[in-house]
Amino acid sequence: MTLLLTTVIAGLMGLAAGSFLNVCISRWPEGKSVVKPRSYCPSCERPLKWWENIPLISWLALRGRCRTCRAWIGWRHLIVELAVGGLWAFTAWQTLSASGLAEFAALSYTAMLDGVAQMAFMWMLVGLAACDAENFWLPDRLTFPGILLGFFLSLAHPALDTYYVSGDFEQWKHRTSLAIAYWFLSVVIPTGIIVIIRYGYRLIRGREGMGAGDVKLMAMLGGWLGVKVSLIAFGIGVVTAAAYALVLVANPAMRGKHKPWLEEKLPFGSFLSFGGIIGGLWGVPILAAYMAWAGMGQS
After folding, report:
1. What's the CA gap between 177 and 158, in Å, rounded?
2. Range from 41-45, 95-99, 141-145, 159-163 carrying the lowest mean pLDDT
3. Per residue in 4-43, is it b (16+ CB within 10 Å) or e — as a string?
4. Which of 269, 278, 200 is nearest to 238 (CA)?
5. Residue 178 and residue 163: Cα distance in Å, rounded?
6. What's the rounded Cα separation, in Å, for the pair 109 and 228?
7. Of 99, 148, 244, 246, which alpha carbon lies 20 to 30 A from 181's?
8. Average pLDDT value for the chain
9. pTM
10. Cα three-residue angle 175-181-184, rounded to 5 degrees
């Protein structure tokens, strides 16, 4: 399977995964099943035909409106499908390109695992970003599985490394112990920083400035990205959130009538998820570039 074909297939699968994610985002806040009933218009409650559920194409063909009642479906459905489809396609291309191989079947088990895991990671982050932007809510059903998947991935790496290198049981125990310790520190250190910021803000301002969901999301990012890259993701989240806040200050109409900008709630989890996506795709080269710029790289 060529590089181009693999990328296209991954993108199409991502569009389908994004479509399912839209169902989850719409139904989870209301406590509804994502399996039954089948997709329907939230305005007139008419069940959708199969051809009205084709990812991307149906939204474009219907111009984002229900075919019957003409109610506006919203941009979120299109954005989520495009985001997941694009991220999955790019992940497939990045995985194959980094290995120097054009055939998916020629990849090592480690590279396959990393590629598939990154797709799952991106899917969860897009879902978290959309949930927080729409409902100021970061569901545990995404953050907790995300933390556990990051842990299992950290265990899989030493097992596969030992399989490829030596197969020695003592080597596997040593690598696994180091992987668990590193994963634990990667979760605790970034999470500890955000907990300090959260309670420091509460102490100074006398109110919540960051929810518990943001703390869990930071734990998830730490477990997947490691200490340094997760802190880069946090920095990107802070910068983009600050930029959005400046836009709100400059455009009072965006925050509602007579509402002070200091009282405007920001979906920080959405910006943190965006930072996690950037960190997952380019965190290592960003870190290397920063280390070189700061003079901390190898001479």
Report:
1. 9
2. 159-163
3. eebbeebbebbbbbbbbbbbbbbebeeeeeeeeeebebee
4. 269
5. 17
6. 26
7. 99
8. 89
9. 0.92
10. 140
